[in-house]
Specification:
Distance between the termini: 18 Å
Strand content: 35-45%
Helix content: 10-25%
Structural class: alpha/beta
Largest sheet: 8 strands, mixed
Strand order of the largest sheet: 6-5-4-7-1-8-11-10
Shape: globular
Family: Belongs to the dihydrofolate reductase family.
Number of strands: 11
Pathway: Cofactor biosynthesis; tetrahydrofolate biosynthesis; 5,6,7,8-tetrahydrofolate from 7,8-dihydrofolate: step 1/1
GO biological process, one term: tetrahydrofolate biosynthetic process
GO molecular function: dihydrofolate reductase activity; NADP+ binding
Number of helices: 4
Protein name: Dihydrofolate reductase
Length: 164
């Protein structure tokens, strides 16, 4: 089984998106996402793939989950289930689950770690949420806090959790 990380940015209410868009623009979060996922496998749902401004992300194995057996996404492999996608991965692959809500809910029980950007703010509107991070299952292994600044309109922290 590959090593599975879930990566997401969440607000105080665990909101992750609205109308298939990110809730906050945090350049450092985007840099961290790129640094962690480059050279690895990313698994996402169809709507997440469709939200990517330039399609498949470069220098990563892009995997899209879709229940449509005829679905094709340029630059990505398509699987009908998370289980099938994970079976296609080697034991030495590092897999990042990048969304959306339903894919996070499917993956949280098999993930080895969570790489969350915890945003100290609340989105005015949200229609997608991250599953609850149960402290009996997940323990915090690192936290890197950042204050708001000219490029980041609210404070945030990069928080990594490992399975207890």
């Amino acid at each position: 089984m590959p090593f599975i990380s879930i990566i997401a940015a969440v607000d105080r209410n665990m909101a992750i998106g609205f109308q298939n868009k990110l809730l906050f623009w945090l350049p450092n979060d985007l840099k961290r996402f790129k640094a962690l996922t480059t050279g690895n496998t990313i698994i996402m749902g169809r709507k997440t793939f469709e939200s990517l401004p330039k399609g498949a992300l470069p220098n990563r194995r892009n995997v899209v989950l879709s229940t449509n057996p005829k679905a094709e996404f340029l630059g990505a492999e398509v699987f009908s289930s998370l289980e099938a996608a994970l079976k296609s991965c080697n034991d030495n692959e590092h897999v990042y689950i990048i969304g959306g809500e339903s894919i996070y809910r499917q993956a949280i029980d098999v993930a080895d770690e969570l790489c969350l950007t915890e945003i100290d703010g609340e989105a005015p509107e949200a229609d997608a949420f991250f599953p609850d991070v149960n402290p009996a299952t997940w323990h915090e292994k690192s936290r890197d806090s950042h204050p708001e600044d000219e490029k980041h309109l609210c404070s945030y922290a990069f928080v990594d959790y490992s399975r207890a």
